[in-house]
Amino acid sequence: MLPKLSVLDLAPVLEGGTPAESFRNSRELIKAVEEYGYHRYWVAEHHNMQGIASSATAVLIGYLAASTQSIRVGSGGIMLPNHSPLAVAEQFGTLESMYPERIDLGLGRAPGSDMLTARALRRDDRGAYEFDRLVEELVGYFEDVERPVIAVPGKGMSIPVWLLGSSLYSAQLAGRLGLPYSFASHFAPDLLDDALATYRRNFRPSKVLDKPYAMVAINAILAETDKEGEFLASTLFQQFLGIIQGKRGKTQAPRQMDDLWTEDQKKVVHQQLKYTFYGASEKVFAQISEFLRHREIDELIINSPIFDITARKKSYELLSKVWKEG
Predict the structure, then answer these.
(1) What integer is the mean pLDDT of 32-38?
(2) pTM of the model
(3) Which of 37, 52, 93, 177 has a 20 to 30 A CA-CA distance from 237?
(4) What share of the chain is helix, strand, coil (3-state, %, to 5)?
């Protein structure tokens, strides 16, 4: 049985475009993928990045949930050390009150930016080293118990809390707390199998889950032909090449890559984007099927950072069709 399909969206700010246009594109995309049958739609907290507009993640979740009827909407994720657990509980309690049984709260430990920006956000670096305590405090605010400080709204609400990670730390914690877990193999592929094994090995049944539930993020870019899919994928390649070169800007239009990178840079980018699948539907489906072989994955969350919103919607549509046929 194939895993469920979901969507990861970073609200990319396009070269020549504005964050306002990015939000309209995200609204257009979530409406489309809801029709295609995707299970959930997550946006991720990033800061100080010209090419990503999802910094006020809870606000964006509310905007997107208001545009849809049934698809789950959530954070992939909220970088918890940047925030007060009480404030996050109140924000997501508010969202759950507005859109019942449709809100997810995915939590990450990284700053979602560089360390200078992290200090501007956190004012106190201790949160990064107290992630376990912050998670348990946040989860506690959703419990239906009396305490000196309560989250209103939030108290007594069944909001799914996920732990996200690109290393083994969150995998171990998610298992110990009995929470669902999502691994970011779309940009950090090397520890995927170790993280999944760590999560399952450390899993303890909880009020939330009686058995492990693992979701994995990958990049998938589908088009009518393999050649077109490879061309569209160059937007993602340029983004990671920019990271290597220390050049971070807006999301770039697709172009031929040969004159942009050296062979060494190309190897580094392709290694970091190891789990990136692009081309026509049949090719991508075969690649993802091979990726899933011998791995216990309950859900795939798909990042498709395609420059043109029409082509981006088409990619998700093609994947949903071949998934249903598969």
Answers:
(1) 98
(2) 0.95
(3) 37
(4) 45, 15, 40
**Looking at residue 248, what is its pLDDT?**
84
How big is the chain by its Cα radius of gyration, in Å? 19
Rounded Cα–Cα distance for residues 200 and 105 (Å) = 21
Q: Residue 289, class by beta-carbon neighbours within 10 Å (0-12 exposed, 13-18 middle, 19+ buried)?
A: exposed
Residue from 45, 79, 71, 69 nearest 59 by CA:
45
* 65 to 43, 74, 140, 185: CA distances (angstroms): 11, 9, 25, 26
DSSP result, 153-204: TTTT----EEEEESSSHHHHHHHHHT--EEE-TTT--TTHHHHHHHHHHH--
Report the candidate in 267, 286, 175, 174 with the shortest Cα–Cα distance to residue 220: 286
Question: Which pLDDT belongs to residue 191?
Answer: 97
Average pLDDT taken over every residue of the chain: 95
The DSSP output letter for 51 is T
Coil/strand/helix, residue 11: coil
Helix H or strand E segment including 56: none
CA 122 to chain CA mean position, Å: 22
- Among 91, 103, 27, CA closest to 56: 91
Contact partners, residue 324, CB within 8 Å, separation at least 6: 37
